[in-house]
Specification:
The chain has helices spanning about 10-40, 65-70, 75-105, 105-125. It has one domain (about 10-125). It is mostly helical. It has four helices and no strands. Keywords: Membrane, Transmembrane, Transmembrane helix. This is DUF1634 domain-containing protein.
C-alpha cells in the first residue's frame, strides 16, 4: 500500500502562484489578441508608415484612460490593457509571495514584499510629462 504524504504549505502556495501567473499571462495574451484583431478589422485600409515612430496618444498613457477606452471598445486601448495586464503579472507574483510569507509567519519578508509591491505600483501608476 502506497502512503501519500500531504502537500505542505509551501508546495500549495507555489502551485497556486504558478496557476495565477499562468492564467494572468494567458488572459493578457487573449486581451492583446482580441485588441489586435479589432485593430486589424477596423483599420485594415490604413497605410503603414514604418519610416517614422509615432508614440502612443495621450489617451493611452494613463491607466484609468486605458481602462475607459478598453471598456468603450477602442482597439488600441484593448491592446494597451493587455500589455498592462502583462506588466501586472510580476506584481501578482509579489502579492502571492507576500501571502506565502504571511502564511509562514515570516513578517520580515512580508514587509519586504509589501515594499516591493508599493514600488512596483507607484512606478506603474505614476506618470511623468
Amino acid at each position: 500500500m502506497k502512503i501519500v504524504e500531504p502537500i505542505d504549505a509551501y508546495e500549495s502556495i507555489k502551485r497556486s502562484m504558478t496557476a495565477v501567473l499562468r492564467w494572468t499571462t494567458a488572459g493578457a495574451g487573449m486581451v492583446i489578441f482580441v485588441g489586435g484583431v479589432l485593430l486589424l478589422l477596423r483599420h485594415r485600409a490604413a497605410p503603414a508608415a514604418f519610416h517614422s515612430f509615432i508614440g502612443e496618444p495621450d489617451a493611452l498613457r494613463f491607466v484609468p484612460q486605458i481602462a475607459m477606452g478598453a471598456f468603450h471598445g477602442h482597439a488600441l486601448a484593448i491592446v494597451q490593457l493587455g500589455i498592462l495586464l502583462l506588466i501586472a503579472t510580476p506584481m501578482l507574483r509579489v502579492v502571492c509571495v507576500g501571502i506565502g510569507y504571511a502564511i509562514e509567519r515570516d513578517w520580515l519578508y512580508v514587509a519586504v514584499a509589501g515594499i516591493v509591491l508599493a514600488v512596483l505600483g507607484f512606478s506603474l501608476l505614476s506618470h511623468k510629462h
